[in-house]
Write a structure and sequence with these properties.
Blueprint (H helix, E strand, L loop, with lengths): L1 H4 L5 H4 L4 E6 L3 H18 L16 E9 L2 E15 L2 E9 L9 H15 L4 E7 L3 H6 L2 E9 L2 E8 L14 E4 L5
Length: 186
């Protein structure tokens, strides 16, 4: 029988996501996978944290996710970022992470950044900041962010950057978010 000859565990890797839904985390499995992705990127891949990267900010932050979809059905979290209001009107984005296998698919990181800033903008954000690892500064500049200062954080060079809010219209529907298509699907 043909079905017996197929390794069913290998099937998901044979498919390419047709689209990615970038949205606020609304389901427990999304939050769990987002935290696992952050650990993989910041603890294992980059070695910035030991064991876990969670901190007190997670208790007050809104987490966003990029979920890969096949035939319109959610499959897995492939990107994440968190946002929080630090003081009245001043918001921060942090812990932007995209799974290594998806960093060149459908502008996932850029769309996470766009929803992060646009949803904060809808909530009264007047200033949106992020401490950006130096290697990611060109991406943020291309997305209309300005460098305010260079700094060392967690033993790595970073730049304090500010989004140009006029390039990020408010998004009042962050729970449904945005959809971006994979390059092969467009």
């Amino acid at each position: 029988m043909l079905a017996e000859a197929i390794d069913l565990d290998a099937l998901p890797t044979a498919w390419t996501a047709s689209e990615y839904r970038i949205k606020w985390t609304t389901l427990p499995w999304e939050a769990d996978q987002a935290f696992r992705l952050r650990r993989a990127v910041f603890c294992i891949e980059q070695g910035i944290f030991v064991g876990d990267d969670r901190d007190a900010t997670d208790e007050r932050a809104q987490q966003l996710v990029a979920v890969s979809c096949i035939a319109g059905m959610p499959e897995q979290v492939v990107g994440t970022v968190r946002i929080h209001e630090d003081e009245q009107g001043v918001w921060f984005g942090s812990r932007l992470a995209v799974h290594a296998a998806y960093r060149r698919h459908g502008k996932i990181g850029a769309t996470l950044i766009r929803l992060a800033v646009s949803s904060a903008h809808a909530l009264g954000c007047e200033t949106f900041l992020a401490h950006v690892q130096s290697q990611n500064v060109p991406l943020f500049r291309a997305l209309h962010w300005d460098v305010l200062a260079e700094e060392m954080l967690l033993g790595r060079p970073h730049h304090l950057m500010q989004a140009q809010l006029d390039h990020y219209p408010p998004c009042a529907t962050p729970r449904s978010g945005f959809v971006t298509h994979s390059r092969s699907a467009s």
